[in-house]
Specification:
alpha+beta; five-stranded antiparallel β-sheet; globular; 4 helices
Length: about 375
């Protein structure tokens, strides 16, 4: 096991991070400099290869030579930018440790009641049943347009291919959208490789052909479920994460069973008793520009597991094939269930900026053909804790 060095970020009031030794300089102590210039706090680390990696804490996005990678903990709701100043746009050696330490939230192992306990939705959210999942770490936000672009640029230079016009977005800090299921899965593999992790998705049951091109009809046996890399959540994992550890709640927050525009980016109406937003239609905070009316990643408060936007903003792809009668199947209650063995559509969860209140419920199930992509569809990733 690699030696680890503890670096205290006390100057910026950030938590201590445990970093693999490959990310710090060979000098003892490691070279770590804090600079303040023009109102921008810059933390600079010289890696073992001599590359200088720079983390900038800004209130707004910087130049095109920097890229968004995670949330700025020092200034809530503002981005943190990371670049290798010697090669702008190239992921620096610090990238993997930062992503693993700050971008993900732990969802502990546990059991929960999966399905619609209120009877508000449809037959495919019934019967309510017990689901048990192992622990995992999940992206705190939906994949941003900026993070998509970073991985996409690397992927297309390393043997990956995607659909034409995939991965749109209103702004770098907004979620990526117009992503079909196949491209989301391939992007997960590319992100894994970029960060030096073992990819999860393959083109065959022997797990010998890395999935990086085309539209492969994949079954559960095409996935290395024990791999360290990123993948889409199963439907059970997604609902466990969305509920944030709270039982018997309609939405991802534990203190109420109603929804308003102060809680989520969705399309409000008077047709549902649990939609009590004083403003109707689209969330007015995000309609002062062209479509889509997405909101910045991490704009609203987190749920009990520290996850943002588990209701609204963009629909999120899950791994599972969709089956309207799946919850009545005994396999749906098996620990770490991975869904049906086959199908024609894949599951979407979480609602969107253009979806009404019911679509934003934790239990709501939606589906779409895996080749389909619209301006309401994005995703987030998880990996082993």
């Amino acid at each position: 096991m690699a030696m680890k060095t503890k670096i205290l970020w006390t100057a910026l009031a950030l938590p201590a991070l445990w970093l693999p030794s490959e990310y710090v300089s060979a000098q003892s102590p490691p070279v770590l400099n804090i600079q303040v210039a023009g109102g921008v706090s810059q933390l600079t680390l010289k890696g073992a290869t001599g590359a200088v990696c720079q983390i900038q804490y800004l209130n707004a996005l910087g130049s095109s030579n920097t890229w968004l990678c995670l949330t700025n903990l020092a200034v809530p709701n503002s981005p943190c930018l990371l670049s290798d100043v010697s090669s702008p746009g190239v992921p620096c050696r610090f990238y993997r440790a930062l992503i693993a330490s700050l971008r993900l939230s732990l969802v502990p192992a546990g059991s929960f009641s999966m399905g619609d306990a209120f009877g508000d939705l449809g037959a495919d959210e019934l019967p309510v049943h017990s689901a048990t999942v192992s622990a995992f770490s999940m992206d705190r936000t939906e994949v941003s347009k900026a993070l998509w672009d970073i991985v996409y640029a690397w992927a297309t230079n390393n043997g990956y291919s995607f659909a034409v016009n995939t991965g749109l977005g209103k702004a770098p800090a907004h979620p990526v959208e117009y992503v079909n299921w196949y491209d989301a899965v391939k992007w997960c593999n590319a992100r894994s490789q970029l960060e030096g992790l073992t990819p999860c998705y393959y083109t065959n049951e022997s797990l010998t052909g890395l999935y990086c091109a085309g539209q492969v009809v994949m079954s559960n046996s095409f996935v290395n479920w024990a791999a360290t890399g990123y993948r889409l959540p199963t439907e059970a994992e997604w609902e466990r994460a969305a509920r944030g550890g709270a039982e018997g709640k309609r939405f991802p927050w534990a203190d109420t069973n109603v929804i308003t525009h102060s809680r989520a980016n969705y399309k409000s109406s008077t047709g549902y008793s649990y939609d009590v937003s004083p403003t109707l239609g689209y969330n007015p905070a995000f309609t002062n520009g062209p479509l889509p009316y997405t909101s910045p990643c991490g704009y609203f408060a987190t749920n009990g597991f520290g996850l943002y936007d588990m209701a609204g903003n963009v629909w999120e792809w899950c791994w599972d094939w969709y089956d309207a009668n799946w919850y009545a199947n005994a396999a749906a209650s098996q620990a770490d269930t991975r869904g049906p063995v086959s199908g024609t559509k894949r599951v979407l969860r979480g609602g969107s900026w253009d979806a009404s209140a019911p679509d934003n419920c934790c239990a709501l199930r939606e589906s779409k053909t895996p080749s389909g992509a619209v301006t309401e569809t994005g995703f987030r990733c998880l990996r082993k804790p």
